[in-house]
Amino acid sequence: MLRVLHIENIAVIESADIELSPGLTVLSGETGAGKSILIDSIGAILGQRTSRELIRAGSTKGFVSAMFTDISRALQDKLTELDLAGEEADSVHIQRQISADGKSTCRVNMRPVSASVLKMLSPYLIDIHGQHDGQKLMDDSCHIEFLDHYAATDALMAEYLPRYQHLFALKKQITELDKSEQERLQRIDMLRYHAGEIEEAALQAGEEETLLARKAVVDNAGRLLGALDTAHHALDGDEDGDTLGAVGLLTEAADALAGICELSEDFRALYDRAEELKYLALDLLDSVGAQRSRIDFSPEESARTEERLDTIYRLKQKYGATVEDVLQYGQDIAEELERLSCADETRENLLAEYKTELAAAREVAGRLTELRRTAAAQLEKRIVAELAELDMTRARFEVRVETGSKLTAHGMDSVLFQISVNPGEPVRPLSKVASGGELSRIMLAMKNVLTAGEDVGTLIFDEIDTGVSGRAAQKIARKLSAIGRQKQTLCVTHLPQIAAMGDHHLLIRKSVRDERSYTDVHTMDAQTRVSEIARMISGENITEASRNNAAELIEAAKAYREGLS
Question: If DSSP codes are grouped into helix, strand and coil, which group holds residue 285?
Fold first, then answer.
């Protein structure tokens, strides 16, 4: 249960240290005093979403800390599993700091964790009933969630949901195949045309580069031949030998130097250089000749090269930036054509798989239905018994489980809570019958039944008394007291009957100091408690009669609690 709650710089709360005890603790105060801020602070340590707007004006961060003791064995096991166990096995310390940049820091037993871990631990710590729960009770579509919670369908739902999701995916694939038959045929025609173009072209990787290089030679053939002829003539001279070229001249120079090379090392060096230049010139002459022989082209070759390059250009414009991209596209469409051509076979396979999965999902859904129907009968009896204790002795409550043929995310069932609050009246949907006060009592009954077997250590009821007064308020007060004997219970209330029934009473009060608003939490003693309950009875004009009335309520509540003991 929640033992200590510390709050710093949250909204109008500058600092508050609240010690809590077992039993029923009531929280009261004027409207706008800050009771909802207290609930929001508790929500923060449970991993609920927070906002920078929650930080007190002028502060850079807000902070909430909570100490829980006598925690359940299930929570101890969960903390051990997450490596978050503290020095004392039966307690846990949770902190959350909210920064002005919107980020938050969470800790469990001084170890940093994420907000999602806090949310994971929250079902073992505190169950908060607020106005949202009442809205869900009025929403018929949410009734199946209440019944499933009571019936503990988690294991079956974990088996059913993956099958349902797989069925949904299969159905989507089948539907897409059926809807796109014409598109499929049109795409097959288009892809076959593309594949035909690419196949007919018979492209080769690297072909374009080779063609471009050849084209450069063909386009410049005249200039190339002229240059090579000139170079050949300069090296080899005239064919009739009248004019020597560079090779002939270098040969003469070498021969001349050969006759004197033995006279000195200098002449030997000149001869060696002449011989080297002669052979270099001969090698160059051979290379020029080889290049001349390779330049063999015709107008037909030029046309073929141009045509081939044009074909490649057109294919690249359609299917890819390079020849390799075009070839890859050809492979891709070949695979897609194979898939599309096998669509009929694929559809038959999908249908066969769908039928198998449908039968399996229906079998699990059938077990869900059986579990819900059994639980519905039990829930009806327990809710009726709870309502009788809440001054609705003639109420009839029915949990209607209707099973259809269509599968949904919940199985094949729909659930509707129906009630008759007056004798002779037929049962009708909750949303069409229950008044505000009746809905509060139904919600309290539902909450008491649903949380009875849970590991949660603390229950919080935020204004469960909406629309309630008189005798019904007294009955709710007694029910809350009974719940408080089973689990630590906190109740935010505006009703004196409920406030008087509390084992403990906290006053939430807002004041203005130095033109700043401050909310403080005060533990009430016997005298101040009488004054607060008198205020709840008569408003600001507290009279002796209202104080006497408050004292009588407190004494009556005390006698009732002692009678229960």
Answer: helix
Tokens of residue 335, six digits? 């695979």
Distances (CA, A) of 286 to 201, 213, 224, 294, 487: 39, 23, 16, 13, 107
Residue-wise DSSP of 504-564: EEEEEEEEEETTEEEEEEEE--HHHHHHHHHHHHHTTS--HHHHHHHHHHHHHHHHHHHHH
Which residues touch 166 (CB under 8 Å, ≥6 apart)? 357
| Tokens at 309, concatenated | 């390059």
What digits encode the pLDDT tens for the residues 438-487? 777 888 888 888 777 677 889 998 877 777 777 888 888 888 898 888 88
Secondary structure (3-state) at 243: coil
CA dist 202 and 195 (Å) reads: 11
Q: Which of 308, 289, 306 is nearest to 218 (CA)?
A: 306
Q: If you average pLDDT over residues 13-28, what whole number do you get?
A: 92
Query: Facing residues of 141 across strands?
Result: none
Residue 262: half-sphere exposure toward Cβ, Cα within 13 Å? 1
Looking only at the bridges linking them, the beta strands covering 13-19 and 24-28 are: unpaired
Would you say 449 and 397 are in contact if contact means Cβ atoms under 8 Å apart? no
**In terms of pLDDT, which residue wins out, 270 or 369?**
369
| Contact call for residues 58 and 40 (beta carbons, < 8 A) | no
Which residues, at least 6 apart from 80, have a Cβ–Cβ distance to it below 8 Å? none
Q: Which residue matches tokens 């074909």?
A: 311
Rounded to whole angstroms, the Cα distance separating 398 from 515 reads 55
The reported pLDDT for the residue numbered 313 is 85
Q: How far is CA 431 from CA 95, 131, 416, 428, 442, in A?
A: 40, 15, 10, 8, 12
Residue type, 435: S
CB-CB contact of 237 with 244 (8 Å): yes
Summarize pLDDT for 180-194 with one digit per residue, the tens: 667 777 888 888 888
Task: Say if CB 441 and CB 472 are below 8 A apart.
Answer: yes
